[in-house]
């Protein structure tokens, strides 16, 4: 039997293109929040096991990013923010991205299950499934609530980290989940307000496109009203010392002030850009203070007392 | 299944074909460079994977990793049994 293979150009994708495919900036936030979830959990996890868990979570997040870029390549090519991604640029073919993403997803889930524990692996599998199938394939192009519900995928890493360390779940990682879950809408809608043309052009029903700028600004304000007290909740529930409480209160007040400015902004998007930038700092600092508070063994609390 | 490299063997041998360019895919400099970086990245990733598996195995099993029985000891009959 003779079969003639279809002619394909040899790949020009370098290692850097594949790293770009994994969304390294998103991955860094995932790794950081998972690390915090792991380190604030009670008990002790061996550093080698902890490192292996973190590596699997990192690779799993990268796999989800690659699969997202594979599925969204058609709209990425027509949006200014995403047009330079590896697939629209022609560096990586869609097939290569899909193969890369599915392989890494399978490897990371199986490795996490074998090296750490099954609960963490199940949560990682659910996170990848939720981000790719629920958010990317289903919600993103069908409802303005896409990033609200889809935000659950980005909020799960602290729970995976906690599960890796303890083999179980508790209220505290759920609070961390809720903080990121309610942080996502103000963060993402602030961005989409000044990228509204991109989303409208490709038909993605982001809230500003569907409901208008005024309604989006109102909802940013409402979600921030929920986020600010949630940020303080770990201290109110007795999980952290007062230094975390003070930091969370100050950072939450900063978010509220900027969200109020966004709501009152009549023209231009200066406040939106400020809120978007500050929201990244907010989440990073909140988790960093939480980590320092816990790792220092309540040291701050003793000084403050 | 016929690959491009297989077709090279089917070329008639002779002076007329001595100077003909070889059939098959020729990589450009960019393609060669990209393949090299991919190969290095895969090698590094595989090496890291082996190290992680080794380290986790040692941590999980501890010193027991060296004490596995190679041959089963024959079971001694209990005294007093017939």
Task: Give an account of the 3D structure.
Chain A is mainly α. Chain A has two domains: 152 residues, UbiA prenyltransferase (Tetracycline Repressor, domain 2), CATH 1.10.357.140; 136 residues. The C terminus of chain A is likely disordered. In chain B, 48% of the residues lie in helices and 0% in strands. Chain B is built from two helices and no strands. Chain B has a domain of 38 residues.
Task: Present the secondary structure layout.
The complex is a heterodimer of chains A (305) and B (82).
Chain A: H1 15-21, H2 24-40, H3 47-71, H4 73-76, H5 94-115, H6 118-139, H7 146-155, H8 157-166, H9 171-193, H10 196-202, H11 207-211, H12 213-236, H13 242-264, H14 270-295, H15 299-304
Helix pairs in contact in A: 2-3, 2-8, 2-14, 3-5, 3-6, 3-8, 5-6, 6-7, 6-8, 7-9, 8-9, 9-12, 9-14, 12-13, 13-14
Chain B: H1 4-9, H2 29-61
Shape field of chain A: flat
Rg of chain A, Å, rounded? 21 Å
Characterize the biggest β-sheet of chain B.
none
**The CATH architecture of the largest domain in chain A:** Orthogonal Bundle
Major beta sheet of chain A, specifics? none
Biggest chain contact: A-B, 20 and 22 residues
Class from secondary-structure proportions of chain B:
mainly alpha
| Order of SSEs of chain B | HH
Overall spatial form of chain B: elongated
The fraction of residues in strands of chain A falls at under 5%
Q: Could you estimate the helical fraction of the residues of chain A in percent?
A: over 70%
Give me the CATH superfamily of the largest domain in chain A: UbiA prenyltransferase
Average pLDDT, all residues of chain B: 74
